[in-house]
Automatic annotation (TrEMBL):
<protein>
    <recommendedName>
        <fullName>Fe2OG dioxygenase domain-containing protein</fullName>
    </recommendedName>
</protein>
<dbReference type="InterPro" id="IPR005123">
    <property type="entry name" value="Oxoglu/Fe-dep_dioxygenase_dom"/>
</dbReference>
<dbReference type="Pfam" id="PF03171">
    <property type="entry name" value="2OG-FeII_Oxy"/>
</dbReference>
<dbReference type="InterPro" id="IPR044861">
    <property type="entry name" value="IPNS-like_FE2OG_OXY"/>
</dbReference>
<dbReference type="Pfam" id="PF14226">
    <property type="entry name" value="DIOX_N"/>
</dbReference>
<dbReference type="InterPro" id="IPR026992">
    <property type="entry name" value="DIOX_N"/>
</dbReference>
<feature type="domain" description="Fe2OG dioxygenase">
    <location>
        <begin position="503"/>
        <end position="615"/>
    </location>
</feature>
<dbReference type="InterPro" id="IPR027443">
    <property type="entry name" value="IPNS-like_sf"/>
</dbReference>
<dbReference type="InterPro" id="IPR050231">
    <property type="entry name" value="Iron_ascorbate_oxido_reductase"/>
</dbReference>
<feature type="region of interest" description="Disordered">
    <location>
        <begin position="1"/>
        <end position="20"/>
    </location>
</feature>
Length: 648
């Protein structure tokens, strides 16, 4: 060690004790064709777990040429092999080699890109059901997944099906730390990979036990078999921390002056490029590099609370899409393209996106929210009842327990614990469509002239602005959908999105939630799970915490959040409705969502402004080659839902 003064300071790796246990199954590891000892671990596992039938079955997804870095070669390529293999490979050339290798042994080779989409005929569960030998058992012996991307979702798909493989070997992304649950989007075109803890969490839900890890692969054994045959072979409790070490992780730390430093792996593993510190600096100018709290430094000490709001805003800014190029008159083409792609990426993944750059004034948003609060939460019920919705036409006030969002997906009875007020386009004379009823505002007699006027002014202004924003968002979505398809039927369906939507049936609903019976421990939603029916929904919430919007993602619910204060550039949630989803051949999902009570000691009422964008009633639509008007599509949708409800 040098004690001379190094101007760059000293940066070395310190020795830390390893917790990695070497006395588990890893001690049997060896490679014949595998990469990091997998061949030996697999051999040992199937010595421990006895065979229960004439042949054993394995499925190898991402089998490549059958030999290179293969985890199944040793089991299958052998004169007296007791194994039958189902080998799946997407790459055409490699597949040819795979067939040449396996044909003589009678194994099943499939040249398919396995899809992670739920109802695809290329999903792994579908392939196992339809493209395997007739005696292929549900509890087949060995599943090996290595597709460099959607591995998590393929495993998810199999575990949710009838199949219960005995042993699973699945690849994880070895750069991700052990305290990170990273699940890549469910999208066949995305290659992120998922973290080891995410895979283990998934497998544990289906009663699988992690038994060993190599550099890239996790081994999981069905719990009944683990208890009976494997447990005694492992002299410790097999957890992630003792079975794996992140040796390829990259971490970052910060110096007091704002310099960012990289620790650990300094190269991009799959791209073979260096990760250079000079490229990742946020403060890149030397003069900016100051420690803000150094003695004598000019301190602009903001209260901590403001700082955390600013941080929250920054975070939301970084995950929202800037749609300003679509909201101003002369948006630049390249910016528009960038924006369309970005919003579609978010929407394709889960039917939800965050947008900003709409040009709306923050004060107008706050005024609309605070007048919503005054009307729904503070005014006497008589004020609200002065504009009571008489039928289920969509204008005026609708009290708690009067409606049921989920009726459209077959739930019974009015059960939404939320107060609502709706406004829409002004009625055209003689128009009898359900969505073009006259507006009903609260009366002067019950609420006083000033309240009534201000409420109407701000809600109407917000409504008018949001209709424009919604149109811009739909244009933005339509541009990318159109440019990325060559399907002419789909293209003509999308035409409806780009027509002039000046006369429309868009409805603004004010929703007000507060603490009530459903906050007492019961997990019943305030608004039951549903999908929105229209084109898109654009949502804004206030800071209330008594209710939270959640969207469905595989088997769980994810909170949909906005900043707790409306930022200078307001951020909105966009949600795809059934009509748009139908029009684009379901490329964009209309995702199930619900509103749940939030239990907290100090519960603040929560208000929401939801603009449901709709076409004009007689807008012609082409959906899967059939033509109909928007009103006909809606009626049909509602009739189908009611039919389904009748069957329950
Ligand atoms: O209040 C919310 O967060 C959204 C309610 C909702 O899903 C709807 O109005 O369709
Ligand atoms: Fe909704």
């Amino acid at each position: 060690m040098s004690y001379l003064n190094d101007p760059n300071g000293t940066v070395r790796k310190a020795k830390t004790p390893s917790h990695r246990r070497q006395d588990g199954l890893i001690k049997y590891s060896y490679d014949k064709t595998s990469q990091s000892g997998e061949d030996g671990i697999i051999e040992k596992l199937f010595q421990l777990i006895p065979s229960t039938r004439d042949r054993r079955y394995l499925v190898d997804v991402g089998a490549w040429d059958g030999k290179h870095l293969s985890n199944s070669y040793s089991l299958l390529i052998n004169e007296n092999s007791e194994w039958h293999g189902v080998l799946i490979e997407a790459d055409g050339e490699k597949f040819q080699d795979l067939v040449d290798l396996h044909k003589p042994y009678g194994n099943t080779c499939l040249n398919v890109t396995v899809s992670c989409m739920r109802h695809s005929t290329q999903s792994l569960a579908y392939l196992l059901r339809h493209s395997t030998p007739s005696d292929f058992p549900d509890d087949f012996e060995f599943l090996c997944i290595d597709v460099d991307g959607t591995d998590y979702w393929l495993l998810h798909d199999v575990l949710h099906s009838q199949f219960k493989p005995q042993v699973i070997c699945v690849e994880f992304n070895p750069t991700m730390p052990h305290d990170l649950i990273y699940i890549q989007p469910r999208d066949d075109n995305i290659r992120h990979g998922s973290s080891l803890p995410a895979l283990v969490e998934l497998a544990e839900q289906f009663d699988y036990q992690l038994v060993e890890c190599t550099c890239y692969n996790a081994f999981l054994v069905r719990r009944d078999l683990y208890n009976q045959y494997v447990r005694d072979e492992i002299p410790f409790e097999p957890t992630i921390d003792v079975l794996h070490e992140v040796t390829m992780g990259t971490s970052m730390y910060q110096l007091y002056d704002g310099t960012l430093k990289i620790h650990g792996c300094k190269k991009m593993l799959w791209h073979r490029l260096p990760i250079l510190e000079e490229k990742i600096q946020i403060l890149d100018k030397k003069e900016d590099k100051l420690f803000p709290f150094a003695p004598g430094a000019e301190l602009d000490q903001k209260p901590v609370i403001e700082e955390s709001i600013a941080n929250e805003e920054k975070m939301f800014q970084s995950i929202s899409v800037d749609i300003s190029s679509y909201c101003k008159p002369d948006g630049i083409v390249e910016e528009k393209q960038h924006c369309s792609r970005a919003i579609l990426d978010q929407l394709k993944a889960d039917g939800f996106a965050l947008v900003r750059g709409t040009g709306i004034d923050k004060d107008l948003c706050n005024k609309a929210l605070s007048w919503t609060h005054k009307f729904l939460q503070e005014a006497p019920e008589a004020v609200r009842r002065s504009c009571l919705t008489k039928d289920r036409a969509r204008r005026g006030y609708s009290p708690q327990n009067a409606e049921n969002f989920a009726s459209l997906i077959g739930e019974q009875g009015p059960n939404d614990l939320v107060k609502k007020f709706r406004v829409g386009p002004e009625n055209e004379e003689g128009d009898s469509f359900a969505l073009t009823q006259p507006n009903a505002w609260p009366t002067e007699e019950t609420w006083g002239l000033e309240n009534v006027q201000l409420f109407q002014k701000y809600i109407q202004e917000y409504y008018d602005y949001l209709c424009k924003i919604a149109n811009a968002i739909v244009q933005c979505i339509a541009d990318e959908l159109k440019s990325s398809t060559s399907d002419s039927t789909l293209e003509s369906s999308l035409d409806a999105l780009t027509v002039d939507n000046e006369s429309h049936t868009s409805i603004l609903t004010l929703l007000g939630y507060r603490k009530g019976a459903r906050h007492q421990g019961c997990k019943k939603p305030l608004v039951a799970a549903h999908t929105d029916v229209g084109v898109i929904t654009v949502l804004l919430f206030d800071a209330g915490n008594s209710a939270v919007l959640q969207r469905a993602e595989s088997d769980t619910w994810i909170d949909v959040k906005l900043p707790t204060q409306v930022p200078n550039d307001p951020i909105f949630v966009v949600n795809i409705g059934d009509c748009l989803s139908d029009l684009c051949g379901n490329i964009l999902p209309s995702t199930l969502h619900r509103v749940m009570p939030r239990n907290s000691k100090d519960t603040i009422p929560r208000n929401c402004l939801a603009l449901f964008q709709g076409f004009k009633s007689d807008q012609k639509l082409q959906i899967s080659g059939q033509s109909m008007t928007y009103e006909e599509w809606r009626k049909n949708k509602i009739a189908k839902a009611q039919e389904a409800q009748g069957k329950i």
